[in-house]
Amino acid sequence: MFMLAVNATYRTVRGEIIKMVENGDFYLAAQLYDQEAIVLLEEVFDYLSQIVELNDQAVIDVMAANRAEYRRSFIMQRYFYRLLF
Quick count: other Cβ atoms within 10 Å of Cβ 58? Predict the structure, then answer.
């Protein structure tokens, strides 16, 4: 499932669990939590881990590009400075 679908399903299950607890069906709520909510939470955390890894890689790529651009501009600045003096 996609992240949004998993999250929506988790919220639905969580709502059902809350209703069960409000009605005093603690055993059924615990069963539903153990059978469905835990699995959905693990899927959500897996998606979040993947997103964090992608963000980390994006930051590394952007930093490398920025450093390369800085080096080019620094070299050009020194080159033009030498031309002037």
Answer: 10
pTM score, whole prediction: 0.61
The number of residues in the chain equals 85
pLDDT tens for the 85 residues of the chain, in order: 577 888 899 999 999 999 999 999 999 999 999 999 999 989 989 999 999 999 999 999 999 999 999 999 988 888 888 887 7
Residue spans of the domains in the chain: they are 3-84
- What the block records as the tokens of 15 is 């709502």
Identity of residue 24: G
